[in-house]
Design a protein that fits this description.
With 342 residues, the protein is of the alpha+beta class. 36% of the residues lie in helices and 33% in strands. The chain has three domains: 124 residues, SH3 type barrels (Roll), CATH 2.30.30.870; 104 residues, eRF1 domain 2 (Nucleotidyltransferase, domain 5, 2-Layer Sandwich); 92 residues, 2-Layer Sandwich (60s Ribosomal Protein L30, Chain: A), CATH 3.30.1330.30. It has ten helices and 16 strands. The strands form three sheets. It has a seven-stranded antiparallel beta sheet. Helix 1 packs antiparallel against helix 2 and helix 6 runs parallel beside helix 10. The longest helix has 28 residues. The two termini are 43 Å apart.
């Protein structure tokens, strides 16, 4: 997610979603009554004897219904026209804006709540962790860093496979060692090893043998070099890396919660129990399942506002993934406490 603007005073959020996960996040931010500005289309009758023509317009609608189809990964906002090209789209008529990746959208809310901002910023941050991309074969490796939507080539390393100084085995060991040194010097935390041959798998095994414990992904490409690097970045698998990183953090938080629940002192769960912890100022982190937020919006919003007042951290979990399913087993609402309350 690219954040163009968050103006809390005027309730304006301007963003460019970049993938399907971003659409899902926006489906949790856009609510009935919000105004959404973006591109839409409508069929117009053609001249006599010709077929209808679909034209694209800028529209502003007041949201009535927000629908995210997890199967087709489509986010549709159905609402009443309240601005835009009123010659074509009459004021008050119903229109759908289908939100798609890589287009600019403006959302105008009566109030931007803390969890709205945190969700948008989390979606943006998930793409800003530096990811080291190594695209390689048995002769050359291109090492790049991907951060803030930019890819910078950091090194080109050659294996000297055909050189007379080394045998093939010696050459590959030195080749892998040189790549590992560069990766270590870069402080790489998340690594994608890619390429068209099995050498990428051999290098992954080399890292494992040397105790490299950071996250490593392996991906196939049709070629190497800059072209292969671009192939990695545009792939669906690369999109999922940021999601995996976020899920790892959510899993860590849920395991911490479950540990405290088992101890029976610094955790609580259930609607009334969490509400009581907030009222006593005892909650340090509050965990909310997205489905529960949708079902009991007004009640949960009141608790969120209370959490903000006492400085408690808020975490909203996706019910589709394993950490969210574990939270659902606790009723969808829980808290880690600063201190025990009787």
């Amino acid at each position: 997610m690219r954040i163009l603007k968050i103006d809390e005073k005027h309730g304006i959020i301007s963003v460019i979603p970049e993938n399907e996960d971003d659409l899902w996040h926006l489906s949790k931010v856009i609510e009935p009554g919000d105004r959404v500005i973006g591109l839409t289309s409508r069929k117009e009758k053609g001249k006599e004897g010709t077929s209808a023509i679909r034209r694209v317009f800028q529209a502003e609608i007041e949201s009535v219904d927000v629908s995210f189809d997890s199967f087709s990964k489509a986010l549709r906002i159905n609402g009443k026209i309240c601005g835009g090209n009123l010659d074509v789209l009459p004021l008050g008529s119903m229109q759908v804006i289908e939100i798609t990746p890589n287009e600019k959208y403006k959302i105008i809310k009566k109030a931007i709540r803390k969890h709205h901002r945190e969700r948008i910023e989390r979606a943006a941050k998930s793409h800003r962790e530096e990811i080291t991309i190594i695209v390689m074969d048995d002769e050359d490796a291109t090492i790049s860093s991907f951060k803030d939507f930019k890819c910078d080539i950091k090194a080109e390393i050659h294996s000297n496979k055909a050189g007379k100084r080394y045998t093939s085995v010696d050459s590959m060991k030195e080749y892998f060692g040189n790549i590992l040194k560069k990766v270590t010097d870069m402080g790489a935390k998340i690594i994608v090893i890619a390429g068209p041959s099995f050498v990428k798998d051999d290098f992954a095994s080399f890292l494992h043998e040397r105790g490299f414990s950071n996250k490593v992904y392996i991906q196939g490409t049709s070629t190497t070099g800059i072209t292969g690097t671009n192939e990695v970045i545009k792939s669906k698998a690369f999109e999922n890396i940021a999601r995996d990183s976020q899920l790892a953090e959510e899993a860590r938080l849920i395991e911490k919660l479950l540990e405290e629940v088992a101890k029976g002192k610094l955790a609580t769960y259930g609607f009334e129990q969490v509400k009581r912890a907030l009222e006593h100022g005892a909650a340090e982190r509050v965990f909310v399942l997205d489905k529960l937020l949708e079902e009991r919006k007004n009640e949960i919003y009141e608790m969120m506002e209370l959490a903000e007042k006492i400085g408690a951290r808020l975490h909203i979990f996706n019910s589709e993934y394993e950490p969210g399913k574990k939270l659902e087993g606790l009723g969808g609402l829980a808290a880690i406490l600063r201190y025990s309350i009787s």
